[in-house]
Amino acid sequence: MDVNWSLYLYTFLASIGGGIVQATTGFGFGIFVMVFFSLYLPLLSASALSSAISLFVSSTLVFKYRKHAQIKQVILPVICYLLISTSVILLAPSLDLHWLSIAFSVMMILLAVYMLFFSGKVKVRASAVTALSCSSLSGVASGLFGIGGPPMTLYYMTLFHDDKLAYMGTLQLFFLDYSHSKQCDTAV
User: Fold this and answer.
1) What DSSP assignment string belongs to 65-98?
2) Dihedral angle computed from the Cα positions of residues 63, 66, 69 and 75, in that order, rounded to the nearest 10 degrees
3) Which of 134, 140, 145, 148 is nearest to 84 (CA)?
């Protein structure tokens, strides 16, 4: 069997870039690597690989910010995320991959437009409804595309707008939980 070593190099380099983005901003690993992984892997495989690697990235960041993570703020969103993501992952193989690829492209464009023009302007109120809404969107986006960070980033930025360390610690703990759960879901 002929091994294409360049794909391993691309995966490694994209992961390093994604790790830098994640460590700097608190999110973005999945967004960054999915741009590259989806070029040479089927979309659902790229999503699973992104989640597997992000488990290691999130682990190191959770360790770094462990004293600032607020576990109580992760419980409800992770439970909701698990339910939605598991359902989406079980449904995903039956979806038409052509339309799923188009949906991924549209999502990436909408994400870029949001980050360029609206990221500082959109405000949400921190509440249980917002936590459930953001974690549901995160579950769908992560289950299909491996990009579940932006909705939860918006929620935790609202919740911890005056405490950057609590924001980073809690967000990374959520990402660690969702990366781990995604691996369990993908194995199903």
Assistant:
1) TTTT--THHHHHHHHHHHHHHHHHHHHGGGS-HH
2) 60
3) 140
Task: Kindly compute the dihedral angle of the four CA atoms of residues 99, 100, 101, 105, in this order, to the nearest 10 degrees.
Answer: 100
pLDDT interval class at 187 (50, 70, 90): very low
Amino acid letter for position 59: S
Question: For the chain, where are the alpha helices, taking DSSP H only?
Answer: 5-25, 29-40, 43-64, 72-91, 97-113, 128-145, 149-159, 164-187
Rounded to an integer, the average pLDDT of 27-42 is 91
Number of domains in the chain: 1
d(CA 49, CA 37): 8
Domain that holds residue 75: 5-187
According to the model, what pLDDT value does residue 176 have? 84
Read off the pLDDT of each residue in 106-131 and give the average, rounded to a whole number: 86
